[in-house]
Amino acid sequence: MPRGNRVVYQIKPKPRKPFSKRAVLVSGVLVSAAIIFFALWYAVRMPYLRVDRVEISGMQLLSASEIEQAVRADLSGFFWLVIPRDNFFFISSRRISDDIPRKFPQLSSMEVDKKFPKKIVITVKERQLWGVYCFRLPAAISTPCFYLDTRGTAYEEFSRFEGWLLPLVYGPEAPKLGEAAVSAEKLEFFREARAAMESAGRRLLSMGLSTTTPDDVRLGLAEGWEGWVTATRPVAEWLGALKTLLESDVGEKRFQLEYADLRFGSKIFYKYR
What we know:
It is a single chain. The protein is of the alpha/beta class and about 270 residues long. It is about 30% helix and about 25% strand. It is elongated. The termini are far apart.
C-alpha cells in the first residue's frame, strides 16, 4: 500500500429510542393527580364552604355563648393538616352532639342541623333537676355533693348542701359528671317510698345507699330517725309494719328513735337515742 494512504470507516449514528408509552402514561397520571389534588385543596378551603354561623337555642341556665365557643373550638384546626374542620361537608353532626355534652354535663341532649353552605343550627335540652347526691354519710362534713337529674345522672358538683327542699341521696362513691350516680330502680323506689310515707303522715327526706348490701337502703325522715328497709321488697310490706310499730310500741317516743330496722318481715328491731 502506498505510504500515506489511510482507510476511513464511516461511523453510523445510533438510532434514537422512541419515547416509552408507559412513561407518557405515568407522566399523564401524575400531572392529572396533581391537578386534581390542588383543585380539591382549593375547593375545601374555599371561604364559601366554611361554616361561620352557629345558632343555639333551648338554654335555660347555660350560656349560649359558652356553648358556641366550645363548638367553634371543636371546629378549629385541620384534618390531616389540609382540610379545615369547619368545611361544611366535613363537619360531623354526630361528633358535635357527642363531644359538646361531655364538656357540659348539664346538657341531656343536643341536636345539630347543618344549613348549607355556612350555618349550623343547634337545639339543646338541659337536664331537669330532681335532687342531690352526696358522697358521704350523714355525719360526715365537707364532702362533695352533686345535682341529680330525673334519671339519676350527676351533672354539677358543689361543696356544701343545706336544707331539705330537694330529695337527698347519700352514696358510698363519688360519681363522674354526666354519668348515673343512682340507678333508675332506686329513684323509682324513692318516689314510691316518699309517696307512701306522705300518705302515712311522715315526710321522707333522704335515702342512704350501700355497696356491701346494695338492696338495703336507709330512709331518713324529717322526725330525725331512719327506717332501714330492703328496696326490692314492696313498699306496702314494710310500711304496714312501720305503722304498727309507731302506733303500738313507740307512740309519742318516736322523736327519740334512732332507727327502725324493717328488713326482716314481721321481726322489727328499733333503737332509741
